[in-house]
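Protein of interest.
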Amino acid sequence: MTEIADILSVVALSALAGGTSLLGALLGRYVRFGNDHILFLTAFGAGILISAAIFEMVIEAEDAIGIVWTLVAFVAGSVVFIVADLFAEKKGGGAAIFLGMSLDTLPESLAIGATLAGGTGFVLAVLIGIQNVPEGIASYREMVSGKGVFRSPKKALTAIGIVSAIPVALGLAGLFFLHGMEHVIAAILAVSAGGIFYMLFYDMIPKAHKDRKWMPTFGSVLGFIIGFAFVTLFG
């Protein structure tokens, strides 16, 4: 039987991971960031996510289900998110923006739910929480600068707030439905890692390096090494 303490722990960790998107959006609303700062922060978040995907997801999955099934799940995850991304783009307008934001959050949230179900998840939740701050800033700026339905600050913050709740929902789902299912958890981690890598190289990394400046590249390096250090020290 699931203890109340377990539920509270999952809610706290998943809220930490997801709520920082809204924190980033609020920073984007009230703090003036230059374009170079946005690119640096986006690249820094990408570096963090690469560390999380490799050291907290792919390696953990390989330990549990072996290299072959890890590779299959990783590729399958990227294919699933390609199809979902194409669907979001086909919708167009504000729906595409909202679906795109949700898709960016989904693989991370799935991974959090899986790791929390396995009794871990603290390191991954913190890393994704750190990454979601610059992602929230960039998402807010992109939304209010466009012409879609979320152009107003209030609607943009509301949309990002809704997306921020996804990790909590999937964290609780993992706790209640995946507890003790180590192989399933490992497969979800590999699928999520594939989705994250697709999202990184389709959206975040090209966007961060579009101006070909040294600062975003250094941000990626800094994010990766900080993520690696955090996994090594606390994982």
User: Anything to note?
Assistant: Residues 88 and 95 are 7 Å apart (CA to CA). The chain has a mean pLDDT of 86. The first helix runs from residue 4 to 30. The chain has one domain: 4-234.
